[in-house]
Amino acid sequence: MATLKDVAVECGLSLPTVSQIFGSRSHLFSEETRTKVFEAATRLGYRRHIGATNLAKGKTNTIFVVIMQGGDKLATSDHINSFIGFSEAAAMHKQQICLANLSEQNLSGDATLQTLLGEKICDGVIFNIVMQDTVMDEIDALFNKEKLPIVWLNTPRKFNAVCPDESRAAEFLAQKLLQHGHKHILYVGVPMGIHFSVTARPGFLREHFKRLGGETFKSIDNWGRPECFRKKLKAFFEKPGKTTAMVLYSETTLLPVFAAASESGLQMPGGFPYAIFDMPIDISPFSIRLKHTGAAPDFRHLGRQAVDLLMERINDYRDIPSVFVDPIYADTASLK
Amino acid sequence: MATLKDVAVECGLSLPTVSQIFGSRSHLFSEETRTKVFEAATRLGYRRHIGATNLAKGKTNTIFVVIMQGGDKLATSDHINSFIGFSEAAAMHKQQICLANLSEQNLSGDATLQTLLGEKICDGVIFNIVMQDTVMDEIDALFNKEKLPIVWLNTPRKFNAVCPDESRAAEFLAQKLLQHGHKHILYVGVPMGIHFSVTARPGFLREHFKRLGGETFKSIDNWGRPECFRKKLKAFFEKPGKTTAMVLYSETTLLPVFAAASESGLQMPGGFPYAIFDMPIDISPFSIRLKHTGAAPDFRHLGRQAVDLLMERINDYRDIPSVFVDPIYADTASLK
DNA sequence: TTGTACGCGTTATCAC
DNA sequence: GTGATAACGCGTACAA
Fold first, then answer.
1. What's the number of domains chain A is made of?
2. Single pTM value for the model
3. For residue B204, what are the contacts with CB-CB under 8 A and spacing of at least 6?
4. Residues A34-60 pLDDT 10s
5. Domain limits at A36?
6. Can you tell me whether residue B188 is helix, strand or coil?
7. Closest-approach nucleotide to residue A54, Cα vs C1'
8. Contacts of B285 in chain A (CB under 8 A)
């Protein structure tokens, strides 16, 4: 593997000259010299050694993203979108994105955290996981002690977090419901959990719905026991009362709803107007999802924002107020 | 930030001594010396600089994973599972996993590829994307020229690939269908695409089904035009003929099937026996999926295997015959 | 247990 | 304006 020195020898120039020509001071040298260098580099198949560059510059240019298997986590499509956002933003900042896996055990014994805290391995860390507040506080404290900047993804912390604006999403759906004349609605959710959206969605929706003139806000969210949930849904479909529309926690929620509706003799879609906290995806030829009125976070954008925020903290170590990112909206008339 | 030299000064020992005590030769020194070193390190808050270590050792200890947004891609849940597999295996091999995003443009102009090929930035690359064979050949050639080992994930190449054994999965489902007396089946798929599983699943299923005694193998897979697909499904449900069971490409496929069944006055699930190339997921409290007979690749395992294979190539640069990984199976009687 | 060379670049300073 | 010399970043490996 050819080194810079080899190139210097090959073209009869000194090592620093060659270095500068590959660096940001290329313009200080004559065209002739530059050509000589580039030709020699090509001849030798020279590849710059990033590790050496980083060491010389005193930077790691590395950001770690911590994920966690199992537990209370993001939808997987959100996950992969945020990853694409990370790499896009990282490319802009000329950073490398590294992956680390947090085991679900106790924090102090976790090998990943020990490495991140105990070795100079990166400039900053993005926590792409959902945990209890107290645990996040604990992690904040650990990283503060090392002055290692971290950013939280998808949690509404006061500082150093990037979070979807679930309130705006709920407001949009509330408006749509009321525009279509639905003043009595059913929210189909998931049980209270750690994941931010789980509690945020029904909370904000109820708030905005009532504020804007909505009247009845019912809710079904007993996912713990599938049979029980199916029973409740079935009961609802057989006796919807004044309720004229439903709002679903996410697109995945459609499946059991369709199944329950079918068991009650209702045709879905079409049998009951609905809106979803999720986007109608109709892009790839594989997409088999249905169009609907929706409002959902754009996790690719969130990923980019997380990297931007982290870079800000890396360049100037301090707490930064959290960023709440506007969701994306769609209205394709599944509310009739 | 304290360096090794600072620690050496602090405890009155030489730099190499301290280095060795932190390295693998700790046992060569007296307990007393070791304690002195560790205490000094703790006092100063010393963190080993990975970049310097790697440079000195002449390794990058880094593996890049290339992903691609859009295009013909894996299911997202497969994606995140493979990521967890990567980090698990990487931790075993003491490697770092870095993420890179391939834009869908022409290969030669892609910044990611240029960086990977033009700079010494990693020891090897995992391609976690699905492309046309000719493009993969092209990439193989580019990386061969640089002697940079790569591994393909989820594609049935002859060498250097890790791929789910779709044939075994199909065989399992065929057996289950026939055990339940279903000799006339419908396969619900997606249009022919680049993604390996798309063509592999119906192909292998037909093969095994016929071989084991199955009689009729019909198929619906026109996803390109959703209305057309719905129409076909509806027509099927209204006149299933001899067909007594269906096999679905993936769990996502359930939604339009349920919808179409409902429109035809059929209750799903229960209205028609089915099996799926996918696992019934009933782990998290958020899971709202239905139990069914299924067979699907374990992408977490595939991720681990990919890293293992890559490490083999890194340690001994040569082509390695591809690995076909056994799927995981479930039988929860959705076939009645 | 330590001195020294080394890995691979970058950058400040200096001479032509 | 061009290019070279030397010091530096942070560890590791080997001979002494």
1. 3
2. 0.93
3. B166, B167, B169, B170, B171
4. 888 988 899 888 999 999 999 988 889
5. 4-48
6. strand
7. C9
8. 190-191, 193, 223-224
